[in-house]
Write a structure and sequence with these properties.
Order of helices and strands: EHEHHHHHHHEEH
Helix content: 40-55%
Largest sheet: 4 strands, mixed
Distance between the termini: 26 Å
CATH architecture: 3-Layer(aba) Sandwich
Structural class: alpha+beta
Number of domains: 1
Shape: globular
Strand order of the largest sheet: 2-1-3-4
CATH topology: Glutaredoxin
């Protein structure tokens, strides 16, 4: 049996959204979903070209997804949302929560930095809003997110989306193509 792939993502990345929508059915082994703060990865500190919104919109259409609705506040501050995704992972709901959060952001046009958006995503996967809010604020959740970023950096992850399969890293467009979203 092949090693479990790891999907590194940030909820503010439209490329991660597209890959997240396809990855479960395209890889031969179900991946582990690992939330990381893209802002702490190397490539995000380097100068990157502007996001090509029309390309993202075409890819979403090609995948049969709802039309992309861009949040008014862009780019988002994903720190709190990524704590929520980390907490969701700790309670076994990483995939469900993350897909719901991606859909709220990119299909619903809601700001992922808005706590209501995070709580709606949590409710979509049966996470109680009080439990989710408390989980976000736990020191252990922040430590888990920090540890995930450290693991990603140690593995050589420079940007999201990224997929690690054993010792091989696929990032950006290469990860999108591997997951069938590119």
């Amino acid at each position: 049996m092949p090693a479990q792939p790891v999907f590194y993502y940030d909820l503010g990345s439209p490329q991660c959204y597209l890959l997240g929508e396809t990855i479960m059915s395209t890889l031969p082994v179900v991946p582990e979903w690992e939330p990381v703060l893209a802002s702490r990865l190397v490539a995000t500190t380097e100068r990157r070209p502007d996001l090509d919104r029309s390309h993202i919109e075409r890819l979403a259409a090609d995948l049969g997804l709802q039309p992309v609705r861009w949040p008014i506040a862009w780019p988002p501050d994903t720190a709190r949302a990524m704590l929520a995704a980390t907490y969701a992972k700790k309670v076994g709901r990483a995939v469900a929560f993350s897909l719901a959060a991606f859909r709220q952001t990119f299909a619903g046009g809601r700001d992922i930095a808005d706590e209501d958006t995070v709580l709606i995503a949590g409710a979509a996967c049966e996470m109680h809003p009080v439990a989710l809010t408390k989980g976000i604020d736990l020191r252990s959740t922040a430590e888990s997110l920090d540890a995930a970023v450290t693991r990603a950096q140690a593995a050589g992850i420079r940007m999201v989306p990224a997929i690690q399969i054993e010792d091989r890293i696929y990032e950006g467009a290469e990860a999108m193509a591997l997951g069938g979203a590119g």
